[in-house]
Write a structure and sequence with these properties.
The protein is α/β, with parallel strands linked by helices and about 350 residues long. Helix content is about 35%, strand content about 20%. Helix 3 links the parallel strand 3 and strand 4. The mean pLDDT is about 95.
Amino acid sequence: MTLVAVPIEVEDPRDVATALEQAQRAKSGGADLVEFRIDVLVEHAEGVTAARRLVHESPLPVLLTCRSDAEGGSWRGEETDRVSFLEAVGTAEVAPQFLDFEEATWSRSANIRQKVRLVVNHPQQVRPDRARLVLSKHDFEGRPQDLTSRTASMAVDADVVKVAWTARSLRDCLEAFELPGLLGVPTVALCMGPFGLPSRVLAPKFGGFLTFAALDVDSATAPGQPTLSQLMDLYRFRSIDTNTEVYGVAGWPVEHSKSPAFHNHAFAEQQRNAVYLPLPIAPDPTAFVATLEAWLAHPGLDLRGLSVTLPHKEPLASFVTERGGVCDDATLLSGAANTLRVDALGQL
């Protein structure tokens, strides 16, 4: 089962009670764990005590993260201070279930690796019930050029590999779908930004270890992160599996479309194993064709249909015609189409 983690930022020891209340809300909303983001808390004199309390009193298992500003967080201090803080929290009687640490820092310092290993699970660990190590990599510019080799290297040391990058198009999601099946360890592969939603919602279809959802829109910790209610209720996350059929509305823009709410509600009433997503495709016929070809060709995606809106109605009609698909009379007459159906054999 793909887990759902809710990130909760804790900046001050006085915020602990509120953070624990938010964790309870996350549990009530169906989350499996909370990610306490302690980027700023680390700087406080009472930060260790506060972090230990978060771990000890959390109603859900804890992923503890102190994210550096280089990878989208707020930590800007000395690396030795961050590691010492994590060591102080991680050696407490009750340890977090997971500890996130950035691969870039892990790989460049043997001394840091040694210190982090004091608080995480590994074959030589003498302390029982220590955290599982999540090695993470985040790229806000785009897909890392060394993604394949980097993640393979991460898998050697990590209990869980996490990689997230800003998607340039929906095609980026296809690579995110593939990674969990390639590395041999639990893997989180997510695309950020407006093109990244499918990688988050469809994680269970491809064996992703977990995905992230915010308690509300204002508390999202990454671009394109859905809310917990959107993930669970709108997209029916718990019903998604390897056999789920994928549908969507393709156009530019599509983020305000009511179609996902309408169709997913209908799928739920019909007890149909299907999900309907907003699929933004840049207003360029070449981008539309490239995206549609790639998504149709993916062997495990099960793309079964699209509602197509502006500016892609004419490119859709041409696409289907050029590939020997069947068009109705209205499409042949107007040279435009607003619906694509893909049958069980892949015929358009």
